Protein 1
Amino acid sequence: MLFIGDDWAEDHHDIAVLDEAGRLLARRRLNEGVSGLEALHALLGGYLPENAPAAEVLVGIETDRGPWVQGLLASGYTVYAINPAQSARYRQRTGAAGAKSDKGDALVLARIVAVDRELHRAIAADSGVAEEVKVLARAHQSLIWARQRQANVLRSNLREYYPAALAAFGQDLHGRDAMAVLGTAPGPKAGDRLTPARVQALLRHAGRQRYLASRSSKIVEALHAPQLPARPGIEAA
């Protein structure tokens, strides 16, 4: 059995290889991609007995996704996803300074799977459909988080010079109604010029089909309400 620590970066992997007695057999820096995976197979082949099952190669790495991890799983290796916070605590426990280094982190990951692997999760080789679902779910999550961050920035800016817009759209600044109206009237002066008919046309063009008249009236009422003016130049900025 071999224990592998894989400290990964965008373009390379620092590898540490331990035997069952915990002895350090090798350290290497491998390229990301096919050539690096080939080099890893060649490295491990020099230490594994003939006909040894690939599952006896236990790999610790701080991620559970990506082509490299899928390549490890497809090769039959047993791969453990180690939480970075947990590996950081191991590093502090085993080193006086607790400082981070690529080579040191690879060794820490190898020791984790050698000693405490039962406390960590072995990654299952998912089907192609499951992998597609995971990628789509993560992309969906990332897009929602990015949208929320942008909405927070917009809310902060509107609070500085256009509080009536916050009254009109509340927490739904990323919604189609807000985007349609603010795209046409991004400031108080333009908002004052909007009529219910104009807002209704904007909402219809954005895709709203129900409650057009009532929603338009509420938006115009909020945008036309008195508000403290910003200093000259702030609205244009």
Protein 2
Amino acid sequence: MFANKKNLKIAVGAVGLVVAGIVLFFVLKKKITVEPMVQKVSEDTLKLTDEAIKNIKLEKVFKGDFPEKLSLMGKISVPEDRTIVVQARISGRTDKVFVASGEVVAPGQPLASIFSADFAIAREEYLEALKDVQKSPNDEEAKHLFELSKRKLDALGVSTVDASKWTENSGKINELGGDNMIVRAPRGGALLSKTSAIGSLVNVGDPLFTIGDLSKVWFAGDIYPEDLNKVHKNQEVVIAANNDSVMLHGKVSFISPVIDPTSRTIKIRALMDNPGSQLRADMYVQGSIVLSTRIALVAPKNALVRLGDTVFCFKRIPGNQFKKVFVKAESESGDKISVSDGLVDGDEVVSEGGLLLNAALSDSGAGE
């Protein structure tokens, strides 16, 4: 009997706990609400949770020096004094070509192998003179003939590196071309053009290769006559390389005295350093001439959202709120832009995520 009463109490207690749990569940379900990450506060303001703010990027607006620039398109070329044409110094036939157009070559690097009767004769004369001077080192006439044979090889363009390896008992004159003459790069740089081909006949003076040093390049741009009075020598020129991630600088060194009859523009040229050969020959790039510098309100260019004729951004206000403000964009410089109206010095603006916030603001269900 006692055991039955005890079991009854346990059963009643268990039922009571279950009922209490069910009641508590429904009470908490009514009271607990999940706060949305983005809430629409008004027609132009959103409130974001701390977690939502982590998904956007904020940058500060500041007042500082801002360059006034004249934008222009231009083309990259290799300065004339940094370009060399490798010409044939002998007549013969091209048997091998060791390089391809666009390749970067080092000073002294083999470019081609040429079979030439003139080279064979000069080589034999050199070996014979070398043999004589080795037998009679004090013979003045032998030494004179040896010097003449060396000069002849030099006139033919034979590298001293190759000639120093020859002996009167040599089988093949060199490891690359056998008995042929090796044409080597007189300087390092990019192979801008290649006219030499296997099997082609060459004459003295024929251009074989063009090598350009791209450590410095020319930027040649076009300006309109009405802008001519703004431009003068030694003004700074800025080129954006690698998708605007690197800015290269130079100075205006030449302003053409004539107007192009086709485009009705005036050519300007600037010499600039080209670290890592980021700018390539014949590349078209966007450049700008720095005309002056002024104090302006500067904002990140990515913060501005353009829809039709309107330009706006979202600035942060107290309480984790972000207000849509309309601004007037003036001029750009790299990843910055000068603005007026709607912003003040020190404002925090959304530089990544503005379009998403605008979509949330336009959503009538936001915040419900």
Protein 3
Amino acid sequence: MRLTSLVMATTLSVFLFSCVSSKKFKTAQADYAKLEERFKTTEKDLNECGEEKAILARQKEALEREKALLNTRVNDLTAQVDFLKENNNQALKQLESLSVISSQQAESIKKSMENIGAKDAYIQTLQQQMAHKDSLNMALVMNLKGAIGNLDDEDINIKVDKGVVYIDISDKLLFKSGSYEITKNAKTVLGKVAQVLKNQPDMEFMVEGHTDNVPYRGGVLQDNWDLSVKRATAVVRMLQKEYGLDPSRIAAAGRGEYKPLAENSSKEGRAANRRTRIVVLPQLDQFFKLLEPNQGK
């Protein structure tokens, strides 16, 4: 009897010990799974931040190259002004050695000196305008990227090229194949872009439709020219009617297949060429005013 009780007690102890260990093991497994999931999420966020940083670095390099070219032009103009100043100083010294300077000659010299001062002011104004334009473009790009978020770069790409901001949106986000009717999913993307553009009341925009070189077939349209124009006007109407952009600030254009980004010989290249591009038009009127005949003479 005592032997039986001892065996039962021993068996019960082993069973209880096994239950406790099993519960702890399962709890540890659950904790490990949670930590592993958090690690994967953090690693994904880190990778996305790295990609965003690389994109911004490339855009910064492009802006810096453009700025260097503009600075070279400004330096050339400055060198011309210095050369003119030196020549005028030498001319004045030569004239000082003469016994008499006519009133007409004196007036001519005075005008030459005034023109040199005007060129100095002209160069300074150009520098200020270029710096202002660069800062506006960079602010616009940052605002667009912040509004759009982490969409795949293959579907939407924002860049600055030669002082102009381009927003390229893949047609798979906007249209079905061969169609110019905007899909419901496209409204999310266009709404975010429209909100940023609406906050730039002094800028004008052009919406360009682009296609690949696969001939258009079917429907009332004749060819890719028609399709690209229809897609551009469809986007313009949505920006105007649903998001309240001033239509006087927007232009629509169809480029057809004639401004490709890539070769049409591959599936990937054709996909890259099927896009809608929003171009932020530079404010050229300000620079044309600077170049009027009464400026910089």
Protein 4
Amino acid sequence: MSKHILFFGFGYCAQYVAPLLAAQGWHMSATCRDEEKAARLQGLGITPLMLDGAPLSPAALDGVSHIVLSAAPGATGDPALPLLQPALQETAGQMKWLGYLSTTGVYGDHEGAWVDEDTPPGPLGERGQRRVAAEVAWGALAETLHLPIHYFRLAGIYGPGRNQFAALKAGTARRIDKAGQVFSRIHVEDIATILLASMAKPQAGRAYSVCDDDPAPPQDVVAYAATLLGMAPPPLIAFEDADLSPMAKSFYGENKRIKNSRIKQELGVTLKYPSYREGLRALFEAQDF
């Protein structure tokens, strides 16, 4: 029997998951809100499912066995849950795997210490609070309906079209120096590999930190990308002098090193890009900026 996956929100990560599933013969559907996006999905061999603000009917989930949830929560909560809940109440028994794409923001600030999936959260910013609330809400529904949900806490995502090269070439890249600050990141191709590994070995209720092996200062990543381009790196700017937007400042308000042992030990994943160096070098060599 063929498998059928629904992408609730077909964004950057889904673009890299879909071709892998297509190669395995999966049927794929994805939500959208306009005809232009629907046409693009059809061009990729994906059945569009138009959203109009009303909850989906059980018929919309006919045959669906897997769901990727990637819509970010807003001030009023997770946008997918109220649209899916009525249909899931009727179709929960056919679900084999649900993947909620969360963020490492749920861990909060740990002043640079190492954390894993079982570490109690530190102080949370607004986005982290929303993500925790969304995870809790999905967990409550999963418990009620016996849904096999999995949580993927994604670090900073990079890959083709989303990396430091474009900003460097445009002259807008900045190297901001905050003492001791590190960020974790993950290449989008490795995200796709991890999601497929979980689909192959589902463990309902499990959470996974999705990041590479090398949490690093952001200014070092920019400098490495500049070196690959043969450019002088931008000058360092002290965090206090950087004049950052409130959102940018909020990123620097959390500092942690995230362990990724679980994706390796439980899912058997070997990262293609274990650090930003391998990832950026591959993008540079492919000129895939």
